[in-house]
Design goal:
The protein has 617 residues and is of the alpha/beta class. The protein contains 22 helices and 13 strands. 46% of the residues are buried. The mean pLDDT is 96.
Amino acid sequence: MKLIINDLKIKESIELMNKYLPLDFGNILSLDFKKSEEQGYLINRKDELVQITYKDLNELYAALGYILSHLDIDNYKVSRKLSIDSLGVMIDCARNAVPKIETFKEYVIQLALLGYTNLGLYLEDLFEVDDEPMFGYMRGKYSKLELKDLVEFASHFGMEIVPYIQTLAHLNSIFRHHDYRSINDTGDILLADEPRTYELIENMLKTTKSIFTSKKINIGMDEAWMLGLGKYLTKHGYTDRMDIMISHLDQVLSLCKKYDYEPSMWADMFFHLTTGGYFNPGVLEFSEEIKKRVPQDVELVYWDYYQVSEQKYTDKFTSLKSLTNNYAYAGGAWKWIGLAPLNAFSIRSMSLAISAAKKANVKNYVFTSWGDNGAEASIFSILPTLIYIAGEFYEDTLTNLGELSKIISGYSFDELLDLDLPNQIYSSKDHIAVNPSKYLLFEDLLFGNSQTKINMNYKYYYLDITEKLSKYIDRKGSFTYLYQTLYHLSRVLSIKSTLGLEIFLSYHKHDSVELSRLTNQVIPKLLKNLELFYESFKYQWYLENKAVGFEVQSYRIGGLMKRIEEVQSYLISYLNHEIKSIPELEERVVNISEDDDPYNGTSYNNQFSKNITYGNL
């Protein structure tokens, strides 16, 4: 029987939603929507008839998420509202992976059903800017039309699209162009107090204003550690760096005011310029002079995704509140550490951060998902973290998030957590921030990495993980490809994770039989598995992202395969007595993890270049 919806616009939006995420309302026959002046939503279900009362459009879709996750209950009445003002997710679009607009449309629907209020796009130079033709050149930047399309689509579901730009640092990609070299202070930092710098920033703000309907904008300003120590130093002499920061911020805020923006920025530079470090322990007492100079019309965002102590979050909130009354919090959904996410650690760290933030009376939250060093992982791989977070900001515990997980992804919450498995090659139940699935993939077979501990048990963990992931790869579903990619990655790592150590040991034991087996049987199998992994990963990338950016993965994985072939040839020459020794293996230092280490020596090593060579790249 056809579902009856009493509001034509809402009916059209639900039909639009069904194109991206088909929804089944079970035996519900009628949805009756009613506007209210009261914040939150009220659901009254009597058998097949459901009435939803709401104030804001995003509450309506949060209510739909609740209804869809409680279809097995025929009669209930529930009233719910967010305990905060805004709850957002920010996706990094600037580190090679540029999600397609169609990908973001599906994301918008998922977030709306979960109860989020906004989606942030971290752009750097990944958007078309008026009068700046080389801005984002050959980087897959979004056109104004693309972004307007997304903004308009999101408006149907009460989702606000918020631009995150950079107005001080993290703009290294533009400085390879002659047009911008004159305003490069040093590294990835803009040259402050330079007219052309503010011309560029105004062009950014003018363009975003023509695209986005939100008054919110994040202007970046983070991690400019070397501010004033490059071209600025040459031009102006040494200047107090806090003076440079405040002066630059004042000029940018003046432009934000001109374009009627309500800006936010990352808070770290005030801590760094005061103490020399953002994560210094304890409570920082800012001087009265600094407090007076910090503008109160910009929201300072404390970002931190690393702590496993609530007190550390609490201390930073205490410091921040002494600096400004206009503050927010940015947490993290870990997908920036390779192909596999860290949802379990995200949930562990964010549960503590959210608890501290609530006590600090934070009202605006955003959960970032960065793409450091290649943005390999899918933006959908962090859904378990986002599902968990969505349940943390209602005062009740009625929402069946496990069922909602199946609705938006086709997988249960626990099944989605299995996307973490390639990084969980340890026995401890307290998950930590490690990414062996990346550094073990790229670590050179001969050089290894003396800073990284290794363990022969890794291959057995990966064999077990391969078996666990195999149960998902033939399932029909829109996200089966995520498991297929990680399945093939785990197959590779069941060989590659310990192969360098096995080569090293057989070489030093003068075991030519074993070394021959590794060379002539194991390496060919590894290369075949790498080819299957590459094809699976390529499919995932092109499905979700624009093509631009994958060239980096092609060079990395293709280079890995070619290097393994080269090592194989090298070993054959040694086995055939064409060379007397392998100097790399003579010099190599092997660092074996202790037997009683519950984490098997796993660590966090996200830089591709540091895994493949001790030379220059």
